[in-house]
Amino acid sequence: MKKRWKVTPVDRGLQEVLGQKLSILPLTAQLLINRGLVDCDKAFSFLRPSLADLHDPFLLKDMDRAVERTVAAIGKREKIAVYGDYDVDGTTSTALMYLFFREIGVDLSCYIPERITEGYGLNAGAVKLLASEGVKLVITVDCGSSNHDEIALANTLGVDVIVSDHHELPEVPPPACAVLNPKQKGCAFPFKGLAGVGVAFNFLMALRSRLRETGMLASKEPNLKQYLDLVCIGTVADMVPLVDENRILVSHGLKELGKTKRPGLVALKESAGVKAGSIDADNIAFQIAPRINAAGRVERAMTALKLLISENPGEAAHLASILNRENTSRQKLEEEIFREALEMLGDSPDRGIVLYSDGWHPGVIGIVASRLVERFSKPTVMIAMDGTVGKGSARGVRSFDILDGLKSCSELLLRFGGHKAAAGLTINRENIERFKTGFFRYLNSSVTEDDLTPEILLDSVVSLEEVDGRLLDEIGSLAPFGASNREPLLCISGADIVTSEVVGNKHLRVMVRQNGCSRSGIGFGLARLHPMKGEGYSVVFSPYVDEWQGTKNLKLRIKDVKEGCVNFLT
User: Fold this and answer.
1) What kind of fold does domain 57-223 have according to CATH?
2) Tell me, what's the pLDDT at 299?
3) What would the DSSP string read from start to end of 54-72?
4) Is pLDDT above 80 for 151?
């Protein structure tokens, strides 16, 4: 697919100021400028994230009420339950809450619904079950903002509910005794991009503070820093912006995860093939998180929760092997559905994609939808049918809000929700074709073909000899990379491709040379560009250090290659 390359304009003046003040290379200064960090103090804090810069958790609206109700429940020895979502964010949030309450000597029950039979969020059956078990306080994590009816039911059954969530709220908030959500109206918390596990962590910071004030903590209070291993997993996995408070939580959380002694996380890292010692956000996104997610997608999320809270290395190793097996099963299902989807689409999909089938697993179609967006750069809806009802996953593109697309056809949907990039829906079979027509009509009126052309946003055009060890070290200080803090993308123009070869059937390995400087590069999924050889190529890449058997080599992670010098759009 043809991609449009766009380079960020250079600001020499700011480069010089930041470079001198922070003792960094001009190129590193430009990377900060590209991320909106033009103030020296803010740039310094970004490069050196500190736990001291976390926001006051009591700035979250309703935090006082949530803490007071929980302290009262602890004092009265009421039965408390935490209710989480089945994805990685929800599972790590649930584990975080359980482990904290266990450490302070409070028995806490956990409930995570099954994706297939119960769906997302609170459900009436679960509420009735918890009430029948004597639960008096339910604390939701990563869900609850849209569960007005279910929370009203809980209230009639004598159960109070504290909502701890980060999803968009409806116009009328749920009738909970407290709603902790930075996105709700009137919330003074300065950062709105927390993951569910980030909201839960703020709740525990506030709760620990109040328990300390009231003398209800044991002689040794919980060290919340040690819980950041779970917080960083959930935050990275949920693809929330890795800036502001999330950057602090993940930066320090990665250090905790690298040295964690939790049997479940140790076993999970081993089964995922994560090397001992240092760990980065990519290890979470591509090795750890998919295994936790596999439990909620094709098995039961409670399996992943049991792993995360396990204190027994043997049990943890067994549970990790189950998740490993389920992840393999998930990968096979994903590949089968992806191939079927490609066959259904043919060579010329419309401006958008809407597909449905009786044979698809609802826990996997979201991943496939994301792959189709990556392949075709078109808003995509995948629907798994079960009798007369279908459950769908929708994914947007850069210039299109997928939630707005669903809202335009809301009268045809039984239920929907989500955000700009990803959403879910439930629909009757009889309405699917009408939905498809309406969805495409909305697309045709709101986006152009130019809007659907994928962009590669470049940080700078450089020479190959500029890419050295010092630059790599300074780029490393911008990590962890993720949403809103992407890995820097650089471009060289007028380079020679010395050799190219296909590796692993899908990937392209090349040797790039410019002005006597040569670097080896790997382009994942770019095997279609082989063979390549000759002069005058432009190459987009991220530099990285490859370590093999104790030897470190600077290499290029190639994103795109074009013949000739590129005329950049600025």
Assistant:
1) inorganic pyrophosphatase (n-terminal core) (3.90.1640)
2) 59
3) PPPGGGSTTHHHHHHHHHH
4) yes
